[in-house]
Amino acid sequence: MCRLMLAAALMMVSAPRSWGAPPAASGLALVEGEILLPTKGVEEPPRKYLGFVAPIKNPITPIRPLDPRPECFVFLEGGPEAPGAKKPADSPVVMELGTVSFHVPVLPVVVGSTVEIKNVGKTTHPIHAPDKKDLFEGPPIGTGGVRSATLQVPEVAALLLSRDSPHVEGRIVALPTRYFARLSASGSFKIEDVPEGKWTIKVWYRDGWLPITSTVQVSGKGTKIRLTLPERMEVQASQESQEPKTGSAAGK
Fold this sequence. Notes:
With 252 residues, the chain is mostly beta strands. The protein contains 2 helices and 14 strands. It has 2 domains: 26-41 and 65-86 and 177-232, Immunoglobulin-like (Sandwich), CATH 2.60.40.10; 87-175, Immunoglobulin-like (Sandwich).
């Protein structure tokens, strides 16, 4: 009897445990980092809307320097994609529209995802996409209203404007895979479940990619990245704008 009890105890100790949290997926890692401002700051772009009075410098409190990072996101490409990396979002991605602005000025999504513009403000906005007439067409969006569209063209910004308020503008950018992240207020970001391997990180600003990239080796221990924005935020021309127009489309 003692021998049987001892054998049973040894089997319980040596047997693998099947309860508890499952182990982390093999070959996937966390990529995190920070996008920094240049030492001299970012050059202020020309003003589009001056209003009724030209802006003047505040003699008491200095004007806060331009920080373009809220209109940026990072994207990883070129590495070994995991199954399902190209899958669109299962449910609509909500882009909130406030009284005077979109809460997220630039929204990245996976190609084929549906985006819902939801008006959470107190003003009705006649939103339209001037360069993409088939997107978000319809009557003005009132408080609590929703307008949806599916983004199919990769790496081209869909510009959204209000016909009544020219300062209200937002952008949606569809990407080939899910390996992207918006930046926090301090410029930090995290991209989870990235397969191990060699990747290139790119930075998008408003309407296109900035001319800064970095090659990174993602490992199981995680990878940290630091990039500094250029002093002049000039983006590269998109693939759509570079394509020559032929046939009947050239005359439109």
